[in-house]
């Protein structure tokens, strides 16, 4: 019997074609409700998801033939991996495929904060000419603090170093820097004290909560700029908004939010020195092609072992 794959979120066309060329039966059924997914999943051997589909216990319980869950992306926030493992279902993701795109977005947000690009665009579209109000800073010669020096953190560090920034890093799981010629490992307190820009590249741990909150913001330089292209919740957004209001924080950039999409009255929306994007870190043509290719390879290799 053919190995059946459900792609419940949009995948790059080349990934779907590769799986079909390998003899797999691939059905693309996107935008399913949780109830529809539970009804559909029973006949499939594998499911490939991105971030929209949630593979929680009710779906896993309904998946009588499921052997593999592939998250075409970095994290597993939307997959109950432990519960799946207890049911004998393998869980995989594609951690490296979108790393460069996320690092480039973080760098783009840093430049946007340094030169008020978002605010300048909005004000000009509103018929304003705020030349005197939009004085910025250079990033060359500034210190970038990176919290989480994994794949994405290392790529961002290299790009920032090439632009003349000094880079320090902190990682809860590492004692020495994996790229000592580019980024110096320091304590979290030192990173907070010396950084002009801080960029986070860590998963959200519910048992830890926000890594940057009011206490940490008080330890930072006045005029610090904070970037979060990691996961919603790793920064206390209310504390960040307060830091912006008081001037302690000169700018903030977020691609991810504790609740997505955020409420229209989110406190950051009323503040000017912000750069915001709707969770598009991996949303480049190149990243999506790599993500799809890696997800397809995982499914094909798994199916061949069955």
What's the structural blueprint in terms of helices and strands?
Blueprint: E1 4-7, H1 13-21, E2 25-28, H2 34-40, E3 46-49, H3 57-62, E4 68-71, H4 81-86, E5 90-93, H5 99-115, H6 117-125, E6 143-147, H7 151-162, E7 166-170, E8 183-185, H8 188-194, E9 197-200, H9 214-218, E10 224-228, H10 237-246, E11 249-254, E12 274-276, H11 285-304
Parallel strand pairs: 1-2, 1-3, 3-4, 4-5, 6-7, 6-9, 7-8, 9-10, 10-11, 11-12
Number of strands: 12
User: What order do the SSEs take from the amino end to the carboxyl end, as H and E?
Assistant: EHEHEHEHEHHEHEEHEHEHEEH
Report mean pLDDT, rounded to a whole number: 96
Helical run tally: 11
Spatial order of the strands forming the largest sheet: 8-7-6-9-10-11-12
Strand content: 15-25%
Gyration radius, in Å: 21 Å
Shape: elongated
Largest sheet: 7 strands, parallel
**Approximate helicity band:** 25-40%
């Amino acid at each position: 019997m053919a190995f059946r794959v459900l792609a419940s979120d949009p995948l790059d066309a080349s990934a779907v074609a590769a799986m079909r060329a390998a003899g797999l039966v691939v059905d693309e059924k996107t935008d399913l409700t949780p109830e529809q997914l539970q009804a559909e999943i029973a006949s499939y051997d594998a499911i490939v998801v991105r971030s929209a589909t949630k593979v929680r216990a009710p779906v896993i319980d309904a998946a009588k033939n499921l052997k593999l869950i592939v998250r075409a992306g970095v994290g597993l926030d939307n997959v109950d991996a432990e519960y799946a493992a207890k049911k004998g279902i393998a869980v995989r993701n594609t951690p490296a495929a979108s790393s460069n795109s996320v690092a480039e977005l973080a760098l783009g947000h840093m430049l946007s904060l340094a030169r008020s690009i978002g605010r300048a665009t909005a004000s000009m579209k509103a018929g304003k000419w705020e030349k005197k109000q939009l004085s910025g800073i250079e990033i060359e010669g500034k210190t970038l603090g990176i919290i989480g020096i994994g794949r994405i953190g290392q790529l961002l560090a290299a790009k920032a170093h090439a632009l003349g920034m000094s880079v320090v890093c902190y990682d809860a799981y590492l004692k020495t820097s994996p790229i000592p010629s580019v980024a110096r490992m320091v304590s979290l307190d030192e990173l907070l004290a010396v950084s002009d820009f801080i960029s986070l590249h860590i998963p959200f741990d519910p048992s830890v909560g926000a890594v940057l909150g009011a206490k940490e913001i008080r330890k930072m330089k006045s005029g610090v700029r904070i970037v979060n292209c990691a996961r919603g919740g790793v920064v206390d957004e209310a504390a960040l908004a307060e830091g912006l209001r008081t001037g302690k924080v000169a700018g903030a950039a977020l691609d991810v939010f504790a609740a997505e999409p955020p409420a229209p009255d989110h406190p950051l929306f009323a503040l000017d020195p912000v750069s915001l994007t709707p969770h598009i870190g991996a949303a480049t043509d190149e990243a999506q092609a790599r993500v799809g290719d890696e997800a397809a390879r995982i499914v094909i290799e798994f199916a061949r072992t069955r």
